[in-house]
Design goal:
- This protein has 135 residues and is α/β, with parallel strands linked by helices.
- It has a single domain, classed as Rossmann fold, CATH 3.40.50.450.
- Helices cover 41% and strands 16% of the residues.
- The chain is built from four helices and five strands, in the order βαβαβαββα.
- A five-stranded parallel β-sheet has the order 2-1-3-4-5, sandwiched between helices.
- α3 links the parallel β3 and β4.
- The radius of gyration is 14 Å and the shape is globular.
- The termini are close together.
Length: 135
């Protein structure tokens, strides 16, 4: 990757899962990334809004900021466990922009598995793949 610091976008369910599911894996991922000298963008903590439905203007702003972060990211690390609305869009956006896309959780038997740089059942395997891809 040269001398530039990689930026990892942490994609995964936020609103469709309990807070500990949305934040727990990201907290660990942030610590693991920082230990390797990688920066992260955590969309689950990027905004402070009421838990009810945000207005269209706020939703559009959140989508714009997240899209910009994906554009500037080196890689997308996605947790596909559980139900999610925006994660598939984030993953596909990263893939279409030529970003490194590593997923874990969900079903690795998906017909879309071949599209990504790695799709694993376990968190640790995804992290190891990111290390190799970013080396």
């Amino acid at each position: 990757m040269g001398d530039s610091q990689p930026l990892i976008y942490l994609a995964g369910a936020i609103d469709a899962v309990p807070g500990d599911e949305a934040h727990g894996w990201r907290d660990q991922a942030e610590a693991d990334c920082l230990a390797r000298g990688w920066a992260t963008f955590n969309p689950a903590r990027a905004f402070s809004i009421e838990p009810n439905e945000p207005s269209k203007e706020i939703s559009d702003a959140i989508h714009a900021v997240n899209s910009l972060a994906i554009c500037h990211s080196t890689a997308i690390w996605a947790n596909l466990s559980g139900r999610s609305f925006g994660t598939p869009l984030e993953v596909e956006s990263g893939r279409m922009l030529g970003k490194i896309v590593v997923c874990y959780g969900g079903s690795p038997a998906s017909i879309y598995q071949h599209k990504y740089d790695g799709w694993f059942i376990e968190y640790k395997s995804a992290l190891e793949t990111l290390e190799v891809k970013l080396a």
